[in-house]
Amino acid sequence: MASETVGCINVICSDKTGTLTENKMTVSAFYDNKWHEKPSELSSNWIVHNICLNTTADISKDGTFIGNPTECAMLNFYERSDIRKNSEKSYKDERSDHEVLHAFPFSSELKHMTTISKVDGKIISYVKGSPECVFTMCDISDTRKTEIEQYITKAQKKAMRVIAFAHKELDDMRDYNDERHHTAMETDMVFDGFITISDPLRADVYEAVKNCRLAGIDLKILTGDNIVTATAIANELHILSGEHIAVEAKDIIDLNDDELLNMIPKISVIARSTPTIKMRVVKLLKAQGNVVAVTGDGINDAPALKNADVGIAMGISGTEVSKEASDIVLLDDSFSTIVKAIAWGRGIYENFKRFIQFPLTVNVSSVIVVFISIILGLKEPFTALQLLWINIIMDGPPALTLGLEPIYDDLMSRPPTKRSDNIISKAMLTRIGLMGTYISIIFLCQYNFNFLGATTAQMSTVLFTLFALFQLFNAFNCRELHSVSIFKHLLKNKIMLLVISITFVLQVLIIQFAGAFFGTIPLDLMMWMKLFGVSFSVILISELGKLIWRLLHKYKLS
Fold first, then answer.
1. Greatest mean pLDDT among 106-115, 292-301, 397-406, 527-536
2. pTM of model > 0.85
3. Tens digits of per-residue pLDDT, 314-336?
4. How does pLDDT run across 534-554, given as a tens digit for each residue?
5. Burial class (CB in 10 A: 0-12, 13-18, 19+), 383
6. 413 in helix, strand or coil?
7. How far apart are CA 184 and CA 435, in angstroms?
8. DSSP string computed for 65-111
9. Which of 82, 162, 426, 454 is most buried, most CB within 10 Å of its CB?
C-alpha cells in the first residue's frame, strides 16, 4: 500500500538532524566566559562534569556513537580536549568517580535535561539544554546575557546547534520529583557556558530538495532547533522566500485551526517544534486534501508517523517505537532516499495505470465487435480457442510487462497525484474509448466490406489475426500515459519488446501451422503485410492525437 501512496506525496514534513544533515555532529566552538574556536582548549570542570555525567550516551571502543548523537558529540569533544589529556581521565572514569543520584531525561517539550550527582562530597544538579531555556534558570545579569547572546546568534547564523550548561549546588537530596522542589532546584543556577555543534547538510540533499520543488512537493522542516539555526539551514536549501516563511512553534501554538490552516501553505519551517505541533500540522495538512509524508526517529514522533499518509522512520538513528509506527524505514536515514522512493512510487502508480488501460481497451473493443456482429446478424467473429488466445494476450505476459516499465527521466517533473484523483482518469477513459472504438470500426469494416480483399475461406483467419495484432500494437500506446511519443522511450522496456516479439511469432505460428486447433488457414505474405500495416495504424492514430494535443497546448501557452 505504501509503495503506491508514496508516489502521491505532495507534502513532506521532515526533521533536520540525520535526514537533511549527515548526522555527524562535531563540537566546533564553545564559550566558558570566553569564546573559543579551538575545542581542544576546554578547561572548565563544570562543563566537563555536565558533559560526562548529565548524559545517557556512550562511545564504543571502535569509536561508534551509542545513543543520542548530540550527547555523543559532546563526549567526543571532551575526549579530544587538553583537560582530558592532562588529567588522563576518560569520561567513563569521571562517571565511575562520581555518583549519579537522579536524572530527569531530556524532554522535547521542556528542551533540557537535568542530572543530580554527588561530586567530591557535594550534591550538584547539572542542566543542559536550549540557551533560552537555561537562561530562565540562571541568575545572570542583562549585560552578560546580551554579550553571550551575541556569540550564540553568531553560531546559529552559521546553522550550528547551541547547547547551554548550568549547575547548582544543593543542600541535600530531596524528592525532586515534587514540582515545588524541582522548580527550586532549577532556579538561581550558575551559567557555565555553551558549546556549538555543527552537522553539515548531506551532499545529495541540495539536488533532492530541488527535485522536490520540480515535482510539486512542498517541503516543511519541523525541527527542534532555534529559529535562527533553522532559518540558516532553510536559506542554504533555498526553501524560504517572500511566499514561504519560518516560524517558531510558540508563534502558532495559540492559533485556532482555521487560522493555522490559512498560514500552513506559507510555512516552510517550524523551529522549536514539538510532537504536539507536528501532529497538529499533519492533521491539518491532510484535512486540506494533501498526501502527507512525515519523517521521524524518536518515540515522540510515533503519533505523527502513525497518522501521516506515509510515515518514514530512520533505520539507523530511529527508535523501535518510531519504526513500528511507520510505513517505511530508511536504511540510510537520507532525505534523498525519500525523493527516490517518491519517484519509484510514482513509477509503480503509473505502471498500475498502464496495466489497467491495456486489458480495458481489449475488453471494450472485443465487446463492441461481438455485440455489433450479433446485432447485424453476422456470424460470431471468433471461435472459443481464438477468444482464449485473445484473453492470454490481454491478461498474460504482454499485459504483465506493462507493469515493468522503468522510471522515466521526466517523471519527477510532473505534479503529484491528488488525493481525490481516480486511478482511471478522464484522459485514460478517453484513450480507452477512442482506441477501443477505432479498433472496432476497422475490424467491423473488414468484416462487412472486406477492404483487405480476403477470400471467404480467409475471412475468419484475417479477422482473428487483425484483432490480435491490433492489441499487440496498442500495448505500445498504453506505455505512454501522457502526450509523449511512444518512440521517446521505445527501447527502455526491453522485456516488453521481447515478449511482444515472441507473442507475434506465436501468432504467426498459430495461423500458419495450428489451423486444426484454432480453425484458421495459412495466409500469404501479401495478406500478412496488409494486416501488419492496418493494425499498425492504431499507433499512427494515437501519435497523431498526441501531436495535435501538444500543438494546441503550446498554442494556449503562447
1. 527-536
2. no
3. 887 777 888 898 888 888 888 88
4. 999 999 999 998 888 888 877
5. middle
6. helix
7. 79
8. EES-HHHHHHHHHHHTSHHHHHHT--HHHHHHHSEEEEEEEEETTTT
9. 162
